[in-house]
Sequence to fold (150 residues):
Amino acid sequence: MDLDLRKLRYFVAVAEELHFGRAAERLHIAQPVLSRQIRSLEDELGAEVFDRGRRGTLLTPAGKQLLEDAVPLLASAQALVRRVKSSAQGTQSLTIGFMPGITVTPAMVAFTAHHPNVNVRLLRTTWEDQVAVLLDGRADVGIVRLPIDR
Fold:
């Protein structure tokens, strides 16, 4: 079985919103289309990932496991695309993610002195995305503030 990343993205949106209507709006698709895609994903996986009841939409144990595994998988897929595009441009680059208040200039100057052919970019991060930028490939390295979700 090949896993469809689009369906996985749809699943993550519903899992994060716990509401098909809001997830459909977020994804800019019609709710019936989203529902069909989630049913198709459940059929492919052989497991229900949502409990659709009077209390609303809840994750099943299988859905919780899928969400735990899907988020880093989608981040890796995004990182792969970014790395391939960067490689196709033929220019080596290094993107450093950093939190405000952390001084990275001396390290950047030292790196560029030793590697003048590498394009160094700085990416300011926040508490909410300092790990996400590493997982999805927006940054190659990160200078983070603890604690972080490893």
